[in-house]
Every structure is written in C-alpha cells, then in structure tokens.
Amino acid sequence: MGFFPNPIPYLCRPMNLADSISHPVFKAARAASEQIGIKSYVIGGFVRDSLLEIPSKDIDIVAEGPGIALAEAFAKEIGAKKEDVVIFKSYGTAMVRFDDEYEVEFVGARKESYNRDSRKPIVEEGTLKDDQVRRDFTINALSISLNATDWGEVHDPFGGLADLSKGIVRTPTDPDITFSDDPLRMMRAVRFAGRLGFEIEEETWEGIRRNVDRLSIVSQERITDELGKMIDHRLPSESFKLLFNTGLLYKVLPELQAMAGVDVVDGRGHKDNFYHTLEVLDNVTKVSNNHWLRWVAILHDIAKPLTKRYEPGTGWTFHGHEDKGSRMVPKIFRRMKLPLTEPLRYVQKLVALHQRPIALVSTEVSDSAIRRIVVDAGEDLEDLLMFCRCDITSKNPNKVKRFLNNYDVLEKRIYEVLERDNLRNWQPPVDGDLIMETFNLKPSKTVGQIKNDIREAILEGVIPNEKEAAMAYMKEIAAKYIA
Questions:
Q1: How far apart are CA 454 and CA 434, in angstroms?
Q2: 59 forms bridges with which residues in the sheet?
Q3: CA-closest candidate to residue 218, choices 114, 125, 333
Q4: CA-CA distance, 150 to 39, in Å (whole number)?
Q5: Which of 26, 124, 260, 318 is the most buried (most CB within 10 A)?
Q6: Which candidate, 260, 243, 355, 351, places its Cα nearest to that of 298?
Q7: Is pTM beyond 0.85 here?
Q8: For residue range 135-155, what is the model confidence (pLDDT) as tens digits?
Q9: With 60 as the cut, is the pLDDT of residue 63 above it?
Q10: Coil, strand, or helix at residue 85?
Q11: Phi and psi dihedrals of 198, rounded to 5?
Q12: Which residues, other chains included, contact 64 with Cβ-Cβ below 8 Å and sequence gap of 6+?
C-alpha cells in the first residue's frame, strides 16, 4: 500500500464529493456550463488525488459538448486576462489559469480509435462514459459532476473507487488494447504505482509484459519525460524496480538493466550494482531535490559491467569504471534527448569524480590530493561530497557507520584545506594571457605547458596559491619551455 494515508474502503466513503469542489473555480465552471447549456465534470488526477487527500492544482474538466466553447465561457465568467487563456484548436482543448493558483484544462468528451503504428488517435465526439473508457486507468477515470442536478456526485463506471481502496492500478478495458493503442501508458502505470505505492493488477501487469516492444512507437521525449517524473518521486527506486520487473527498463535504459545480477567466482561475489544504484538514488532523494544529482546516482556506476574483472587473491574489481562511465554519459544523454548543456557537464563531471573522495577514506591522504579534488570539483564540490556520502552502502549497518565516521573526518579535512589555501572556486593566479604578455608569446603549446607547471606547483604545495609567488615561479621555469 501507499506512501500516502491509506485509502478508506470506498463503500465507507461518501459517493458525493461536493466538499472537494467547494472552491470558486468549480462554481465558475458550473456557471459557464449552464450559460452555454452543456454538462461538465471534473475528471482524472484531481478526483483521484482528492480521494487520496493529496493537494492538486491541475484540474481537468470534460464537457459533453464543445470544450473550447466551455473554456471561453469560463474565462469570461472569471474575467481572465488574454494571456491566461491558451487554446489548442487542433486538439479541441483549452487551458485557463485561475488566480495564478489553478490551471484548468477543458476538453470535449470524446471517443478514440488508433492506427497500430501511431499514438495519434482518431477522435469523435462522445459521452462522459466514452471519455472515461479512453482513460489509462480506472483510478484516473473517476469524475465529479459540476451539474446542478447531481452536483458533487462521483461517476465511476469502471470500479476506480474500489481500486483506490485496494491500492491497485488497473486499465478500464482490455490492457492489450489500452497499451497497444498508447504504449506510453505502460510507463504511466509504473509511475503511478511507484508514486502511490500501489500494485499493478495482474492482468494489467501481464499486458505490460506482452506489449513492451510497442514502446518503440513512442517518441523518446515522451519516454524521458515519464522517466523524469519517476526520478522526482520521493522514493524513485520503487518505479525503477517496476520498470525492471516488467521488462520496460531494457527498452528505456539498457545500461542500467545490464547492472543487475551477481557473478560468483571461487565463492566470492560482488554487490548487485543495480540494487546498489537504486539505494544510492533513494539516499540522494532524501538529502537533495536536485534532479541532475539524481541522474548522477543513476549513472555513476554505469560502466561497472564493462570493467568488471575477477582477480585471484583480490576479488572483484571495477578499475576505471568512473572514467569509462563519464565517457558513456554524453551518448546516453543524446539518446535520451536530455539537455546537452550544463546538466550534461554536471552529470559527466560528478560521475568522473565520484570515486576520488571515497578512495581517500582508507588512505593516508596528503594535502596535495585534497587540493586536486577541490580544484577539479570546483563549484560542484559540495554536491560531490554529498553524493559520495550517499554512495556508501552495505548490508552491514556497522560497516556503513564506521565508513561514514571516517568520511566525516575526511570531509572536515577537505574544508580545512579549502579555506586555508584559498581554493574556493579556484582560478589559476596566472592565466594564459599574462604568460603571453610577459614573454611576448603567441597562443601555443608552450603557454599551456607553463600554465600547467604553475598549476601543478600550487596543487603540490611547492608554492602558495598567490599571484606574486606564481609570477616568480613562472619566471623561474619559463626558460626550459621557451628555449
């Protein structure tokens, strides 16, 4: 059952939800419906979330008549500004903002049919029930009447109330039809089950497994959008386990699927890196809302299947997985249609660096090693250290506790060196322009060599991180490069 308050058995709940539609937005929709002489209903997520006592600001209203006409009457009723009304004529829908608090979407009731090779439906006008049967799941097919004759009455032709009470995600019709018509609904089934802590009903589950290959007709952007919503859940591992067990993960992120399982040689096995990754993902979720740090968690060990080796006397190794993994990130981002800008730089960088602090915990760490981490991480140092803490997992809680205690000591030392050596957001005190000006050089390999020598001297503690010392050192070493 769910992470939210357990639903009360539906027969014990009032079948009239007038209290859930007491806000003026609903009264305005009712008034607009009466003005143009059509019936209207709140449908979908708002109804579901009201029953689960989850706040919701997105409202879908279906009209037994033209949805755009209802939206225009509603906008007039509330005195909406022109910029608060968006009409999508080709889809027969409209969205109106209400008091900068609610987004109300209007659509005419319709029935749909599909061509096998497209998610784009053939649409006809329909009744409320026609509109409900085209919905993805019974818990999203519930509606509340906005009409004077049955104000607040719940319309539930497919048992959505019962499914809410049992914590079940189920299609309102044959799951093979539901998922074949719109394969993205398989991803949505996983998302709702993961978010609410519900189970996917058996026939619906088997329908997903039978139709996994149909996901190929869905655009990558829509798949990635659904995955992103799962990642932003407060316990994203639940959705990823469902993706794995239904077979969807292989279609969505095969590199993560490849991490599952444990190899054993000479009686020695390694961690199941798939489940370790999910544990790290949940750990990150507990301490940060940063969406891209969650992607770091998902991808940080992505190259372990490719670098896994068994060394007699040593055991399992994954040497270089952080470097190889960071080089895999751009390809994954391109395929997933993720931003190839700052988010890519951030994720790739932290995947590359995630082993560095951890490797120092059990060694006699030098100031130069610390300076290198600080400089290489730069403005992302705090996120890197936070992530590394989340990456400490074990089935042995005492082992985790000991390692975290040692990590506390290392982290304290890192911040001491950071402040002492003036390394926060570090930039070299001598840049290429100054080198070229001093020695009358043009851009060249020589300039880069001098600059790198100065950088290494500062990181190794040969000279302090000060411009005067760096200038003196530059003049001292220049001859061997310029000559």
A1: 13
A2: 104
A3: 114
A4: 11
A5: 26
A6: 351
A7: yes
A8: 999 999 999 999 999 999 999
A9: yes
A10: strand
A11: -90, 165
A12: 38, 39, 40, 108, 109, 127, 128
